[in-house]
UniProtKB/TrEMBL annotation:
SUPFAM superfamilies recorded: 2-methylcitrate dehydratase PrpD
Origin organism lineage: Bacteria, Bacillati, Actinomycetota, Actinomycetes, Pseudonocardiales
Superkingdom of origin: Bacteria
The protein, known as: 2-methylcitrate dehydratase
Family: Belongs to the PrpD family.
Residues annotated as domain MmgE/PrpD N-terminal: 58-196
Coiled-coil segments: none
Pfam families: MmgE_PrpD_C, MmgE_PrpD_N
Record organism: Saccharopolyspora rhizosphaerae
GO molecular function: lyase activity
Residue stretches making up the MmgE/PrpD C-terminal domain: 226-377
Length: 399
């Protein structure tokens, strides 16, 4: 019986993308480049300047937490697989090969892997980046499996890093580990492919859940509307869509958020004091949704999080977690906003905009790209996989 690495390697090497797969790859390329260019002035650019291309591009692409998500595996697929592909000179098929590996490994790792505190984007990401880079380099099935096995030692990352630069950097480390592993396999390094199965079992996964049928990325990818953790997209959208009229922050007396416990797993900062922490705070997301016309980049700065009116609202929010929940969009979110005059507003939402069940329109995608920088729409108007690496090298040069 083939090992997991051999099964996935054969699928990746033989995969022929359909038109829908290629459309997903192009949207993922544009979305990833847009959110990466949006972070050109972030402090992390200086911090990560000496990292290799794959690591630097992935870390900067993830620092704003605006990149896409595969909900079924709880992994940020594109911010790992796009940089790994571009660093190896690959194209859409190489990206899709790694994306498919990452989606399937993430599903095999399961929800319990995530609730135990692992950052699945990194754990599934390192072998997936190896697959993308290996396909980009034209390696054989055996070499792709070897590359994934060689990436196993770097397949780590924990949720405790959320709210610090450690989160985006460990994503960068995963992308670079895969690119490095593919290069070693290309030069003749050997590894036991069954190492991937051993690792899966050690971190609580189930190799029997690997299923290579279906499209490249089963379930598709969710596109974020707001630059923060995906677990915040639904409560922010619920308030923005459900309130009958804008609510003055000073009028709010109490806020109660009811949601399944699993849907707030990554939201570890209850009293945030920095912009990065605010991206992983349900309490602050409620405050930003009530205070700001559109919770965008300006809402997730240190200054914005520490606004007196925001901190007052943060302290008012009570979270009522229902037992259970085995994915970020389980059940629905219910939010009750009570005003000082006794008025009560109740809102609820199942699927936020940008999710596969409410896919973004072309206009939605264009609006997001425009938010990422005045020059970004022009820079990405005719971008393809060949031009993309040059674009990143120009705007995020290494040392």
């Amino acid at each position: 019986m083939d090992s997991t690495a051999e099964t996935l390697a054969r699928w990746a090497q033989e995969f022929v993308p359909a038109a829908a797969d290629l459309a997903l790859a192009q949207r993922s390329l544009v979305d990833t480049l847009a959110v990466t260019l949006a972070a050109r002035d972030d402090e992390l650019v200086r911090v990560a300047a000496e990292l290799p291309d794959a690591a630097r591009w992935a870390a900067v692409g993830h620092v704003l937490d605006f990149d896409d998500l595969h909900i079924e595996s709880t992994t940020h697929i594109s911010v790992v697989c796009v940089p790994a592909t571009l660093a190896a000179g690959g194209d859409a098929r190489a990206y899709l090969a790694g994306a498919g590996v990452m989606a399937r490994l993430g599903v095999a790792l399961g929800w319990s892997h995530y609730t135990n505190g692992w950052h699945a984007t990194c754990t599934a990401g390192a072998p997936a980046a190896a697959a993308s880079a290996a396909v980009a380099l034209g390696l054989s099935t055996e070499q792709i499996a070897t590359a994934m096995a060689l990436a196993v030692p770097a397949a780590g990352g924990v949720q405790r890093a959320f709210g610090s630069s450690g989160k985006s950097l460990q994503v960068g480390f995963a992308a670079e580990a895969g690119a490095r592993a593919a290069g070693l396999a290309a030069r003749g390094a050997t590894a036991d492919p069954s190492a991937l199965d051993a690792w899966l079992l050690l971190v609580g996964g189930d190799p029997d859940r690997i299923d290579v049928s279906g499209p490249a990325v089963p379930g598709g990818l969710a596109i974020k509307v707001f630059p923060c953790c995906y677990a915040l997209q639904r409560p922010i959208s619920a308030l923005r869509e459900g309130l009958p009229e804008p609510v003055a922050a000073d009028d709010v007396a109490d806020v109660v958020v009811r949601t399944p416990a699993g849907t707030v797993q990554p939201l570890i900062h209850h009293r945030p004091t920095t912009g990065l922490q605010g991206k992983f705070s349900l309490e602050y997301a409620v405050a930003a949704a009530l205070l700001d016309p559109h919770p965008g980049f300006a809402s997730f700065t240190d200054h914005a999080v520490n606004r007196p009116e925001a901190q007052r609202l943060v302290r008012l929010v009570k979270v009522d977690e229902a037992p259970g929940g085995d994915w970020l969009l389980d059940g629905q979110v219910d939010i009750t906003v009570q005003l000082h005059d006794g008025t009560t507003h109740a809102v609820a939402l199942r699927f936020p905009p940008g999710s596969p069940d409410r896919p973004p329109s072309e206009q939605d995608v264009d609006a997001k790209i425009a938010d990422c920088g005045e020059d970004v729409p022009d820079l990405l108007s005719e971008v393809d996989w060949r031009r993309a690496a040059r674009l990143l090298a120009e705007h995020l040069p290494g040392r």
